[in-house]
Model the fold of this input.
Amino acid sequence: MNIVTIGAGFVGSTHSAVLASFGHRVLAYDLNKERIADLASRVPERIDACIYEPGLSNLIKTHENLQFTADLTELYALSDTIDVIFLCLPTPAHELTLPDEQQHLFIAAKTIAVIIKKRNNGEQTKRIVIVNKSTVPIGTAEKLKIKFTEWGVRNFGIGSNPEFLVEGKAVQGSKNPDRIVLGVENEQDGIAMREVYSPFGDNKMILVCPSDAEAIKLLANFELFSTVVRTYQVMGRLCEFVPGLSFENVMRGVTSDARIPKWGHFTSLYSGGSCFEKDAKNLLHTVSQYSGFTPTTEFIKLVIAGNDQQLEHFYNRAKNEAHFSFTGKTVALLGTAFKQDTNDVRLSPALVLAEWLCRDGIKTIHVYDPQAAENFRKSFTGKPQEKHITVCSSVVEALNGTDAAIIATDWPEFKLIAPLFTMKPPYLLLDGRRSLAQHYEELHGKGLSILAVGSPYMGTAFRSL
Ligand SMILES: NC(=O)c1ccc[n+]([C@@H]2O[C@H](COP(=O)([O-])OP(=O)(O)OC[C@H]3O[C@@H](n4cnc5c(N)ncnc54)[C@H](O)[C@@H]3O)[C@@H](O)[C@H]2O)c1
Done:
């Protein structure tokens, strides 16, 4: 099939590469020329530095049937033969209250409407299915249909095929998805969409209408997000308050019930990334529009607030429980990606922690991340915090000369760093991921003070030292 993707970010580039691996001809368009140049270079190091997703650079390198462009004339040239257009645009939470014409999705849609209405010499004889992959409020596909019609596009279908990829496992997940939700308006478009995903066969497909598809995405993410937040706020907190409880034992016991999923039953300092919180706000927006102020809206708000509160609670425990002051100190910040296996720092807890550390008079932050340190550094370019940030190339370098260390990302390599904590006490380890949970007793025995999510504080009060 001839497929065009609009927006070549985490979703668009992965989706394009996976579709190309199925044998489709794919043209990925993005207005970010730098990003397109990196992806089109087919040089793995350049692609990884742009979007780090295990397996992505290899797919792009090996599939010549995938092309990238930042030039709209290439879309014009292809428009007579396009079967499906996927919209993979950003849908940030702040756009929820903006007029449509100021939202990335509708701006991009209008750009392509101008192109596709001229297809087949303006006759528009070839049917096109325009499919949204972005996470959007329920009813967006319906709105897009009205807009495309107003903009003069004919003989088209609107679909919703929400993306469920997990960053860090995006390629693997897209090649072996749990399900493919296809929201289409009629049988004809359903057939076209099934052809796009034909390598998976019909049993992975959930064929619904576009609004159902939009709702499925918002609700699935809210299930995941609320499980994570509930685990911090109830199981994790209980294990912090009640002496002698082991988070790992409690979690294992609870999740051994076949009805309770293992996923989401971990504790952490924050659930970051560009999706969970944003999509919960999106759901809240939709629910509020239909029902106003209800227990449902309050429940969604509580989950969002519970996530934000978790990060504050974690950071404030340094002051409230350890009586540790960051003023004038040097701290190692280990992990700047919002989670392992990505270089994405959107809504990463490390960004907020760095701001708070600077607000509280930190001298220097030694930053280390195997993939995302550069994106973290860029986030502070030109900002007052920049002068306090030193990017390091290893954990050893980051720990050198520090008074405290914060583990903020669940990179597997951080599970192995216990032997590096050879500093003379007093030293505070803040473990926001329980990466070193197997070593807390031993490290505490060596004189380290330990403040971990899901454990009571282990240490002496710093003010008395
Ligand atoms: N990242 C994820 O893990 C993930 C997972 C599932 C769903 N989603 C959803 O998918 C959507 C895209 O997310 P993402 O992470 O890929 O975002 P992203 O910011 O990484 O990528 C979006 C891309 O769109 C481009 N763009 C913006 N306006 C454009 C325009 N007018 N024309 C062409 N390109 C334009 C940007 O330059 C950017 O490269 C969002 O709705 C998100 O919620 C993301």
